[in-house]
Design goal:
Blueprint: H1 44-47, E1 58-61, E2 64-68, H2 77-80, E3 83-86, E4 91-94, H3 99-110, E5 128-134, E6 139-144, E7 146-151, E8 154-159, H4 166-178, E9 190-193, E10 202-205, H5 208-217, H6 219-222, E11 226-230, E12 234-237, E13 243-246, H7 249-293, H8 304-313, H9 326-338, H10 344-349, H11 351-354, H12 363-385, H13 388-438, H14 453-457, H15 466-485, E14 501-502, E15 506-507, E16 522-525, E17 528-531, H16 629-634
Antiparallel strand pairs: 1-2, 3-4, 5-6, 6-11, 7-8, 8-10, 9-10, 12-13, 14-15, 16-17
Helix pairs in contact: 3-7, 3-13, 7-12, 7-13
Length: about 650
């Protein structure tokens, strides 16, 4: 009831606050129910008048009043918005009709004139509606879209038949462009779509031969821009709830007219009853106030039972209360009055008099009540003299004005939405362009300033120009070169000293495997007790090893040294107290060797701070790593270690 696109509702009774669907997919592109909101349209209460609310037969569910059996609009809404569905053994289809045509025919019936035939009408549809055939069962109508020839090879389609959605027609044009099983060769060269969610605009391009063939066959037929609807299947429930077949819309209007006229008589009677009750209530208030002011009715220092009895005797009408059995209610009142007690219902019935504020006893309030009483009497006399048909004509006139205002407001809302969409689209492109223009260009020969690390992580606005992207890449390369120029990666630091030398100049190899910690003994070097280190093998030329490092050259086989004579290198580590200095092997540590060779002298290298990761330069071809006890224990056996044990 909230859809308002072409082919849905002529008068949407609910406001589509959110995505309720468009003509692109016929409402199938609607959002989920939790993302939409709706309320009554401004025209709804002119169709379903508030004075008819008291006439409806409201249903009851578990003691709660719910919706009525059916509503009573002032025009047949089944013709305004149409109807389509399938029931048990029945199907029904009712086309949409113009609400103004329906109002005009109702006026003719009210004035005793003949109705005029009505054609199906869909709000916003700009095509042609023609009556093609008539039968006893009903009439068939043809709805045609709009197609025009731009030039000898171009066609423009600006309207589709009713209930032919834009996305479906786009797929049809795709089949004409690429071909299908039925259409072996493509019929069109290309097409362009300029449609939106409310309008249709296609441009189709084809060859001269195909254009000629399409004209011979008919452009509407070739491009499937026609559809048919019929009034031969209009099945509806009548006022008694019985399914009935209607042959034409005028028959529905006539039957609705007689039913609605009965409800206008009921409405008039109900309005007269309510006005009469208000008039009696107001008259009793004025009479009671004047009686108290003039001293005819004493209120102060009296029992409530006596006051209520006096009001009954003077003819003040009680307001109606909830219905009860007459005999039981009369018996309760007699008992209460006899015993000097007050019935609850009787007290509520006269509460409109006993609860009057003290301010109402002033002269100004009395005059105001008298004015209201005269006004109600005038309204009651006017309503009594008004025929029920005049009430209906008055409602139809108000509905005409409301429909004009409703359609005008809707068009203004759509135009405003289009303007907002255009402004929003332009605003999205302006910032990126402004940023690209405001960016300062780098002068020739100017050195690039180093950028902080945080700036490199900042996301930059995308630029559509290729030269600007190249300039940014050049700046990044220059920054990298400046950072690398601070460090001489081809030469070791000035304070660098080899970790250890063995046998007059033989250095430790990085691929030598480190023995287990339990194979070493501590020895004293320079007066301090340190763990013994391993005797490395001499370097020889050989193939390149793993990780791109040159493989360690192996020395000729030497007698295996005992575990006590092995020397281990340890680098400074904040997690190992033993790694405060580089350990070597003492001269007297090789006494237990089986070969009897002299122990190699170990030269301890001075300590130097470990370089930070951010400032560490790439290592030279031959590096010397020092591992701590904790790090060597964590290495797996198959891992590439910095030390190798001597061959047996």
């Amino acid at each position: 009831m909230a859809n308002d696109f072409v082919g849905s509702n002529n008068v949407n009774l609910l406001v589509p606050s959110g995505q309720f669907g468009t003509r692109l997919r016929g409402g199938k592109d609607a959002a989920h129910s939790r993302y939409i909101f709706t309320r009554l349209s401004s025209v709804t209460r002119f169709i379903f008048h508030k004075d008819d609310d008291t006439l409806l037969d409201y249903l009851n569910e578990d003691g709660q009043s719910i919706e009525p059996t059916w509503y009573v609009p002032i025009i047949p809404m089944v013709l305004v918005n149409g109807s389509e569905g399938i029931g048990t053994g029945w199907s029904s289809f009712v086309p949409n009709y113009n609400p103004r045509d329906i109002i005009a025919n109702l006026r003719r019936l009210i004035n005793g004139e003949q109705m005029e035939p009505m054609l199906p009408w869909y709000k916003g549809f700009q095509g042609l509606t023609e009556r093609t055939s008539s039968r006893e069962a009903g009439v068939t109508y043809t709805l045609s879209g709009i197609i025009e020839e731009v030039d000898s090879t171009t066609l423009r389609i600006t309207e589709l038949p009713v209930r032919r959605w834009t996305q479906d027609y786009k797929e049809f044009l795709e089949s004409l462009l690429t071909g299908t099983e039925k259409i072996k060769e493509p019929f069109i060269k290309d097409y362009r779509q300029y449609s939106d969610d409310r309008t249709v605009n296609f441009e189709v391009y084809l060859s001269d031969e195909n254009m000629k063939a399409a004209k011979e066959e008919g452009l509407l037929k070739k491009f499937k821009l026609t559809s048919t609807i019929s009034t031969s299947n209009m099945h509806l429930f009548d006022a008694n709830g019985i399914i009935k077949k209607y042959d034409d819309p005028e028959q529905i209007v006539e039957e609705f007219y007689h039913l609605r006229l009965v409800y206008y008589e009921k409405r008039k009677a109900a309005l007269l009853g309510m006005l009469g009750a208000d008039l009696v209530k107001l008259d009793n208030r004025v009479k009671f106030i004047l009686g108290v002011v003039n001293g005819e009715i004493k209120v102060f220092k009296r029992k409530i039972a006596e006051l209520l009895q006096e009001l009954q005797q003077r003819g003040f009408s009680p307001l109606p209360s909830k219905p009860k059995a007459p005999e039981a209610a009369a018996g309760e009142e007699e008992e209460d009055v006899e015993e000097g007690q007050v019935s609850t219902d009787l007290r509520k019935a006269y509460a409109y008099l006993l609860s009057i504020p003290v301010e109402s006893f002033t002269l100004e309030m009395v005059e105001k009540l008298l004015t209201q009483k005269a006004k109600l009497e005038g309204e009651m006399e006017e309503l009594s003299a008004t025929p029920v048909k005049s009430l209906w004509l008055r409602d139809l006139d108000a509905l005409d004005v409301a429909l004009d205002a409703f359609e005008k407001d809707r068009e203004e809302e759509l135009e405003l939405a289009k303007l907002r969409q255009k402004k929003g689209g332009a605003a999205r492109h302006v910032p990126a362009k402004a940023v690209a223009q405001a960016k300062p260009k780098k002068k020739a020969g100017e050195a690039a300033a180093p950028k902080p690390r945080a700036a490199a992580a900042t996301k930059k606005a995308p630029s559509k120009r290729a030269p600007a992207k190249e300039e940014e890449e050049d700046e990044e390369i220059l920054d990298l070169k400046e950072r690398l120029a601070r460090y001489d990666i081809n030469s070791p630091p000035e304070d660098y000293v080899p970790v250890a030398t063995v046998n007059g100049g033989d250095r430790m190899e990085e691929d030598d495997e480190a023995p287990d910690d339990e194979d070493f003994d501590a020895e004293e070097v320079n007066g301090k007790k340190k763990p013994a280190t391993k005797k490395p093998a001499a370097a020889q030329a050989g193939p390149v090893g793993r990780r791109g490092r040159p493989a360690a050259a192996k020395k000729p086989a030497q007698p295996k040294a005992s575990p006590e004579k092995k020397v281990r290198k340890i680098r400074p580590s904040p997690f190992n107290k033993k790694s405060g200095s580089i350990l070597g092997r003492a001269g007297a540590a090789g006494a237990g060797s089986s070969s009897g060779e002299s122990s190699p002298e170990v030269v301890a290298a001075p300590e130097r701070p470990r370089p930070q990761r951010a400032n560490r330069a790439p290592a030279p071809a031959r590096t010397y790593l020092v591992l701590s006890d904790s790090e060597s224990e964590d290495l797996p056996e198959e891992d590439d270690s910095d030390f190798n044990e001597d061959d047996d």
